[in-house]
Amino acid sequence: MAAPSCSVSGLWVRGSWQRLGNLFTFVSKPLCSAAAASRPLDAQRLAERFRAQKQEQKTKKPLPTNPVQRRVQELLRFTEQLQRVHPNVLAKALSRGLVHQDEDLVVINKPYGLPVHGGPGVRLCISDVLPVLGKLLRGHKAEPLHLCHRLDKETTGVMVLAWEKEVAHQVQELFRTRQVTKKYWAVTTRTPVPSAGVVDIPIIEKEVQGQERHHKMTLSPSYHMDNGKIVRVRTSRNAHLAVTQYQVLSSTLSSALLELQPITGIKHQLRVHLSFGLDCPLLGDHKYSDWNRLAPQLSASILKKLGLPQSKARHIPLHLHACQLTLPALQAGKEELNLVCKPPRYFVHSLHRLGLKMPSRDQNGDEETTHSGAR
Length: 375
What we know:
Number of strands: 18
Largest sheet: 10 strands, mixed
Number of helices: 8
């Protein structure tokens, strides 16, 4: 008698490369074959797995009716599922959303929730898919691509890769010597005063005392007030020079859209300067919205606009997007490279809900303000 065969239908995961609405299909391999007839233990395990999946479906919570809450829950689930994606599937998704490609460089639109490097608890990162991505773009004999810089796990936007290790080192040197112009869009939970300026305050890493002991980057100012007078203080040896230029692009009474240009590249520089320097935390910044807590405390007006209760604020994604990067010419006779990347869909939806306007760039890189609902 023929042995039974079985399979599991493909798993669908919601993605967020250019748009969170993109769906990527996983083609699963058969879980058992004709040889399973001679292995009753495998069949037993398979039956237990099916029962567990059925029980999980019964206990699964229904999606909330509020569209914003549903969107937040979908993004949270996507971030968790992203760590279980096969590298081949992720590489194919990245290749479909390329920002730029030439004989030296490949520029991708980094999605939310995907770390650049591996580490504790990281199952999948961008560095894992570089060999597969290279083969997808140049064939099976292609060498792996090389990282030129990094972005935080929660940050989206422009990310540069190089075909050759020498070119990667060249681009890394441009970043190190501050010859690369970087611009970010950020949604903040307050509006900075003044509306444009430069934050020039050193940054240092310190341990936070309390129930959840952890480390954070914080300010290490060179001056402080003493009886109404500005007094210069001795800077710690461990402090790093950090300079950020900012400009308000759109604002309401409770929130703002900022363009940020980091002059230096210190760990979590933008988040620290916004939260502790300008008192304008990033929307969705669960680490730096408060010094002692690891969850954002949003105002009632912002929560009302987003349609979320305070208990759901911890699921809001970080609203920090690397929107533009300008690279100097890598070779003589070539022009500088201006790379522009559209923000993810959840970013645009938040702008619309908060009543903020999103600027659009023309071909020359100039900005024109348009309402986010038009996107």
